Amino acid sequence: MTAGTDSYQAPKTKASKLARPKICYHWTVAEVQKWFKRHCSEYYALYAHYFSEHEINGKALVGLSQSSLLRLGITNAEHRDALCRQILKLRLKADIMEMREIQMRHRITSA
After folding, report:
1. Which of 1, 74, 84, 86 is buried deepest, with most CB atoms within 10 A?
2. Which GO terms describe its biological process (predicted)?
């Protein structure tokens, strides 16, 4: 190790290259908060505490609707619309990933 480098990076293996990101349905409350901060940053300071208080995990997040956001305490309709759009994008991305995995498994079993 050279001077000034105190962290070890494991070599990349074939398994790490093929690893899929964790599907959002399995996210923890902390992972939802990270997503919320990254994708809804303008609303994070206003509403992140609602998500924490209600322990919104990934499964709950993708199930949120206009009415459930209102019940959480998000009263501004424009903010609810924006959050719903981001949640819908996330849900679509997760569905696309799942369909690709199914296709890959089908290719492997039928080969």
Report:
1. 74
2. cell surface receptor protein tyrosine kinase signaling pathway
